[in-house]
Amino acid sequence: MNFRKPTGGAIDRNTVLRFTFNGQLLTGHPGDTLASALLANGVHEVGSSVKLGRPRGIVAAGSEDPTSLVQIETPYSEPMLLATTVELFDGLEARGLAGQGRLSPEPDPARYDAKHEHCDVLVVGAGPAGLVAALTAARSGARVVLVDEQNQAGGALLGVDEYLDDRPSAEWVADIVAELKTTPGVLVLERTTAFGMYQDGFVLALQKRTDHLGFAAPASVARQRVWRIRTKQTVLATGAHERPVVFANNDRPGIMLASSARTFLHRYGVLPGSRAVVFTTNDSAYCAAIDLAESGVDIPLIVDARPEAPARLATECAARGIEVRAGHVVTGTEGSSRVTDVHVAPLGDGHPDTVVCDTLLVSGGWNPVVSLFSQARGKLRYDSSLGAFVPGEELASVRVAGSATGELDLNACARQGRDAGAAAVVAAGFTPGGQVPLPVSDSRCTQRTGLVLWRVPGDEDASFVDLQRDATVTDVLRATGAGLRSLEHIKRYTTIGTAHDQGKTSGMIAAGIVAEALGVELADQRPTTFRPPYTSVSFAALAGRDRGELHDPVRVTAIHRWHVAHGALFENVAQWKRPWYYPRDGEDLHAAVLRECRATRESVGMMDGSTLGKIDVQGRDAGKFLDMLYTNMMSTLKVGRIRYGVMCGVDGMVIDDGTVIRVGEERFLVTTTTGNAAKILDWMEEWLQTEWPHLDVHCTSVTEHWATIPLVGPKSRDVLAAVAPSLDVSNEAFEFMTWHDTRVAGVPARVCRISFSGELAYEINVTAWHGLAVWEALMEAGSPYGITPYGTETMHVLRAEKGYPIIGQETDATVTPQDLGMSWAVSKKKPDFIGKRSFSRAENLRTDRKQLVGLLPVDPNVLLPEGSQIVETDRLPEPPVRMLGHVTSSYPSAALGRTFALALVRSGHERVGETLYVPVEDALVPVTVTESVLYDKEGARRDG
Amino acid sequence: MQLIPCPWCGPREEAEFHYGGQAHVAYPEDPSALSDEEWAQYVFFRENPSGPFAERWSHSAGCRRWFNAVRDTRTHDLIAVYRAGEPMPEVIS
Q1: CB contact (8 A) between residue A832 and residue B85
Q2: A674 and which of A536, A611, A750, A756 could share a cystine (Cβ 3.0–4.6 Å)?
Q3: Mean pLDDT within A317-329
Q4: Which of A227, A687, A837, A841 would you mutate first to test chain B, the one with the most B CBs within 10 A?
Q5: What are phi and psi for residue A400, nearest 5 degrees?
Q6: In the predicted model, is pLDDT for residue A764 greater than 80?
């Protein structure tokens, strides 16, 4: 059956759009929403409810609709859209949802982006108040942004056929929009919902740019855009939502808000049904009844809960054959997939009468849309004549105008818009320009006071408060009966107001029913806090361009290409890609790492160490400064020499370690662990700026200036000699912990003799520009020795065999240098350094602190999982079981011919030689505690 | 997103800043002269007022300077900002 009127509405009847709904082929026209097209085809039942599976239809015409959830399948599958906000396009495929949708497993091919906008006055809502506010602001010369959710300006005027100043309201709207769009400095954004309002005039708005184009959407245009608006002043002209009244079986398809039916009629030329009963508590629904009657809908009855019907409107109804029954209410409905009858009875008591219909239109009054005002931390006040929360205070930079204040008279709304616009521009430092004339409306419905009625007593299990959440009056009463009083608690207990619609039509009613149940005044109840987003926003839109490669910067070294070309697998270390290991044919991690370790310990290996943090510390007081930061003495370091150092926080816990090389009298180069480079630079800056501004020290990150290549193993000296012919590489001329500037492979290089493996080793530093060439030269020079590139995993094994901790792996901000067995790195001479005082705190002197030790599983083939707990006994006692510590590192070792681990163990240093146990799955694995250094304890290999 | 008025750069979005806790907690002149309890006060204990609170901020994604601000912890309003080394302005609570 066709419910489309032959004329009327902003619909292009000459163009037919085909679409399918639940597999059924239907048609509509440009200008339709999916909801209006469904109604035009006589389809009211859209989906079913989330818990109870009850049929659900279309309740409202806009984003406040609680029920018409659909999943669209084309051009890209998207769940949980409202049929009332999906603009129809040719080829649309949609299906109704049973309360929940299904995310597409396919990647979303559309683009999303974000744009920043700064303005003097932001106006939210392009209804009468917003339009007048925006034009008033625009005429002052201020930068104005006007955002509106709909695809065209007009707001509530889109849903009526009233005249303004004796001409169709659309003409009045078009004139204002035309002036706005031609005024310099004014931005008008349609299909744009301000969904979040934050501090200092920051507003987020979502613009749907190509959704309505369907298959015709150009791929080059971002589908949706998040506008990040920073405004000096805001005018909220966000309008009001009609609310229903709760009664038994109030959720059937065909039951709709009266003003929404009027909107479907006037905006889309669609009739909601053939025979409609109207149930109201106020005047506005009379207009809907009269308009629909004049369009051919049979309106047998208006049920008005008020004791007296409004005389003039009742007369108009009588003239059209509409019966008005004052002092009556709807007590229930019948029907399955569509309402078929309504029960009408006197309010309070009396026998119900049954009226046959296919549509029931309901109006319980109007809720001002105060979401953004509340998000801006504006206080709300209960208006007992409206039965709604309204803005309850004036904010310095946020003004509210129009029906968002509770005002329902059009002329008064426009006046508020003009006043708010003028006040906003003055507050933003402008002088109002030409005054915008206020329109005069011919509306029949000007009386605003109605009866506040939340619900009609009846079957509470079937009286739905939040249709989308299937939450009933019973649920509310269960919450209050359980002792809950706060609306916030009741919201969470019942889930009312937590669905996609955020309780736009249900929240106020829930508050009213709660107040009735508790016997308290709503004025004394604190409304639930409104939070962003006002309407649903997809994660894709929020992510914008920050997806995939652009999600987070990827840092690669100057030698990265070589690693990729040679089959390295990579490990993410902070933002860096580091070679993890270089598998050869058929090798897994363990096989590759054993080979890399063996080659390095027996001949020579090398790795890309460029990611190490490097900080250039310069100035007269650089030595003094480093003495405060490191636990050991740095100021006594001679130029040309290198010292390993440990840094602690004021609490004495290790935060980083690395080498310090003295480049000159007033210049040091400090290295940090890869992941801590930025943190340590910040740490230095913090102390310099906030505690020691008198020190002459400057710190600069130079991490990426250098390519750094550790050349490691007994043959490293021969390889270095081959590429650095001018350098005397003998042990006497080039001592351990010294550095030399020289040329390597023909380019200037700084070579440091340091070792993180216990082997003879050199760290070759060249400018990043030359990194790849020097790496390749080293590979070539090392080929007679079978030089082997190795990755972070081999580095970890080699250092662990020597008991060298990795900050962040062996440590967790509760570990002191002494716990790590590094008392040798803590100066006893320095009067003070950061952390020193904490070392003598009682807690840090305890002998049962967790200390770093080695663990050798009794079975040399058992590899302990890192993170395993350590216990004392070979049988687990009844819980709680005392844990002695945990495994921090664990590897198979080529050099040891067995597995080994490092661990933090309570009183670990005293336990060397003891057998402890590590629960692994269902077994307790016996392990022997050892000192942390497991390989070459004498350090004989260091000099080659 | 709040605007924080960096005393060097002017108002910038809060995401550019890093929080540094209570201001005017000086590193003790001679930590070795302090009792364990006094030292623990410096290391671990900070005020947590409801109302104006002088605290340190770093404009870490901007000029990288540390500065001080008095913030009302009830509203997040920044009542005053001032450069490191400058005295705390008189603040009416």
Answers
A1: no
A2: A611
A3: 96
A4: A837
A5: -120, 140
A6: yes
pLDDT tier at B44, thresholds 50, 70, 90: very high
Residue B92 has pLDDT above 60, yes or no: no
Smallest Cα distance from A835 to chain B, Å? 10
Q: Do A693 and B1 touch (CB under 8 A)?
A: no
Closest chain A residue to B33, measured at CA:
A837
Burial class (CB in 10 A: 0-12, 13-18, 19+), A516: middle
| A505-524 pLDDT, tens digit each | 999 999 999 999 999 999 99
Domain with CATH 1.10.10.1100 in chain A: 459-524
**Which residues of A fall within a CB distance of 8 Å from B40?**
841
CA distance A681 to chain B (A): 11
Identify the closest residue of chain B to A199 by CA–CA distance.
B2
Q: CA quadruple A606, A607, A610, A613: dihedral positive or negative? A: negative
Q: Which residue of B has its CA nearest to A228?
A: B1
- In the CATH scheme, what architecture does the domain A17-106+244-363 have? 3-Layer(bba) Sandwich (3.50)
CATH among 3.40.190.290, 3.90.1300.10, 1.10.10.1100, 3.20.20.20 for A459-524: 1.10.10.1100
Binning pLDDT at 50, 70 and 90, where does residue A446 land? low
Q: What is the pLDDT of residue B32?
A: 95
A326 φ/ψ angles, rounded to the nearest 5 degrees: -80, 160
Residue A649: pLDDT above 80? yes
Is the pLDDT at B93 greater than 80? The verdict is no
Tokens representing A376 are 């801006």
Q: What is the pLDDT of residue B91?
A: 72
Can you give the pTM of this predicted structure? 0.91
* CATH assignment, B1-27+47-93: 3.30.2270.10
User: H-type helices in chain B, by residue range?
Assistant: 36-44
Spell out the domain ranges in chain B. Answer: 1-27+47-93
A448, pLDDT greater than 70:
no
Of A507, A487, A486, residue with least CA distance to A496: A507
User: Nearest Cβ partner of B66 from A200, A686, A840?
Assistant: A686
Share of chain A residues as helix, strand and coil, in percent rounded to the nearest 5: 25, 30, 45
CATH of A560-610+706-790, one of 3.40.50.1440, 3.40.50.10310, 3.30.1360.120, 3.40.605.10: 3.30.1360.120
Q: Which of residues 19-58 of B touch A (CB under 8 A)?
A: 20, 26-27, 30-32, 34, 36, 39-40, 42-44, 56, 58
Residue of A116, A200, A683, A687 to mutate, interface with B, max B Cβ within 10 Å: A200
The confidence band for A590, taking pLDDT boundaries of 50, 70 and 90, is very high
Q: Give whole-number Cα distances, A632 to A612, A617, A656, A660, in Å.
A: 21, 17, 13, 11
Residue with tokens 């109604």: A39
List where CATH 3.50.50.60 sits in chain A.
17-106+244-363, 110-242+365-449
Q: What percent of chain A has pLDDT over 90?
A: 95
Query: Which one of A693, A831, A836 has the shortest CB-CB distance to B84?
Result: A693
Residues of A with CB under 8 A from a CB of B: 198-200, 202, 650-651, 682, 685-686, 689-691, 693, 831-832, 836-838, 840-842
Q: Is A650–B56 a contact, with Cβ atoms under 8 angstroms apart?
A: no
Q: Write out the CATH class of domain A110-242+365-449.
A: alpha beta
- Residues with Cβ within 8 Å of residue A403, at least 6 apart in sequence: A127, A129, A156, A239, A240, A366, A368, A413
Residue A904 near residue A819 (C-beta atoms within 8 A): yes
Minimum CA–CA partner of B11 in chain A: A200
Asked if the model's pLDDT at residue A116 lies above 60, the reply is yes
Give the model confidence (pLDDT) of A775-787 as tens digits. 999 999 999 999 9
Q: What is the pLDDT of residue A1?
A: 72
Contact (CB<8Å) B18/A202: no
| Superfamily (CATH H level) for A846-930 | Aminomethyltransferase beta-barrel domains (2.40.30.110)
Average pLDDT over residues A863-874: 96
- The CA distance from A216 to A255, in Å, is 35
pLDDT digits 0-9 by tens, A224-273? 999 999 999 999 999 999 999 999 999 999 999 999 999 999 999 999 99
Written out in words, the top-level CATH class of the domain with range A613-701 is: alpha beta
